[in-house]
Design a protein that fits this description.
Blueprint: H1 2-50, H2 54-71
Helix pairs in contact: 1-2
Length: 72
């Protein structure tokens, strides 16, 4: 009975560690997405000010692709 309880406790600790790891990964990706969105917004603003120069459009497309990839 004591052995079963120790195994259960080890399993619970393992699950808690996995959950914490997933939460950290999620928070990291969430921050990365926010940063990409902020960059995209800034580039869009610059793009609007420059009236659509090709270099700005490429940067926006690149950031959009990165953001879409992360959101999958």
């Amino acid at each position: 009975m004591a052995e079963k309880q120790r195994q259960d406790e080890k399993g619970i600790m393992k699950l808690q560690n996995s959950l914490q790891s997933l939460q950290l990964r999620f928070a990291s990706r969430e921050q990365l997405c926010r940063n990409l969105q902020e960059k995209r917004h800034g580039i869009s603003r610059v793009n609007w000010q420059r009236r659509g120069k090709p270099d700005s459009n490429r940067k926006i497309e690149s950031l959009q692709l990165q953001l879409n990839h992360l959101l999958r």
